[in-house]
Amino acid sequence: MEKAILQLGALTCxxxxxxxxHAVAGQNGVASVKVLxxxxxxxxxxxxxxxxxxxxxxxIEQLGYxxxxxxxxxx
Length: 75
Description:
This protein is an alpha+beta fold. It has two helices and four strands, in the order βαββαβ. The chain has one domain (2-74): Alpha-Beta Plaits (2-Layer Sandwich), CATH 3.30.70. The protein has a four-stranded antiparallel beta sheet with strand order 2-3-1-4. The protein is globular and about 35 Å long.
């Protein structure tokens, strides 16, 4: 398992948060996801043998949101 924190550009509405949570949670291998609206961050835990932080980043960017930074840590 790995943990990733993805720093986003500014989120403008709570529905943005829900869209991102839904998109990331729908990826195979994702165990948990939480969007921190005020901090514009996504925290997620996932099975690195099934998906990657880059795949999760792409899922967010396909929604039209900017991912500025990604930090990954093994857990």
